[in-house]
Hints:
This protein has helices at residues 2-14, 24-31, 73-90, 97-101, 137-151, 153-159, 168-189, 196-201, 209-229, 233-243, and strands spanning 34-39, 46-54, 60-66, 111-112, 126-127, 249-255, 261-266, 270-276, 282-289.
Amino acid sequence: xxxxxxxxxxxxxxxxxxxxxxxxxxxxxxxxxxxxxxxxxxxxxxxxxxxxxxxxxxxxxxxxxxxxxxxxxxxxxxxxxxxxxxxxxxxxxxxxxxxxxxxxxxxxxxxxxxxxxxxxxxxxxxxxxxxxxxxxxxxxxxxxxxxxxxxxxxxxxxxxxxxxxxxxxxxxxxxxxxxxxxxxxxxxxxxxxxxxxxxxxxxxxxxxxxxxxxxxxxxxxxxxxxxxxxxxxxxxxxxxxxxxxxxxxxxxxxxxxxxxxxxxxxxxxxxxxxxxxxxxxxxxxxxxxxxx
Length: 292
């Protein structure tokens, strides 16, 4: 961990990158730290999340974000733990999609019922119109998995880079740019010359089961191509070190009513939406990316 932190600091210095939060993630890897949930004694509501570490000269480094809305301390702690477990599933290569799906409401990936919704705002979901093209549930599920896997690739790529502890947002932006570059490379190598990244954003053009199967086949090839790009000895060592700081909660909130929805944003930019099931346990309603 300390070696990975130093490599990140050296990389940031050579590229003149400003450290996120005064280098809080680098210091977490070098000296340790805490995530502290501040709670109001009277209401028992969570007030703020504080990410705390210290610099090499023993000065405190604190990154704080207020909790949005009213969330009980007990619920906040539960959601923080559940979110860390879920996001960690996303960082396996390949993603354990069965374990991920069990986290969702009804133990199945959701449908997006808003035809104008950006696909990347609700990962591992497909438009409900897919059922109108004669597709069966297995095909719909496979499409959801492929969409979610490809759309989260920039984050997983970012975790494999040395710069991530210094500036997670720069690393994720680099991942998004790398996805575009690799998408073009894949397109040039494909005999049909189809822009597969455009295909991700244009599911409304799928009007038959045959078109859906062709789309699934093409995206499967792209997914395999991208996953291979994550595999290298250096990337694997860096990934393992960075993975531990990538599930840290930075923000927490509650939206309601009419829709009662909790959400947690992690340091890797993944936002998980939760609701409480009839049995009282949290279930996932959506996974998104910060900024979408």
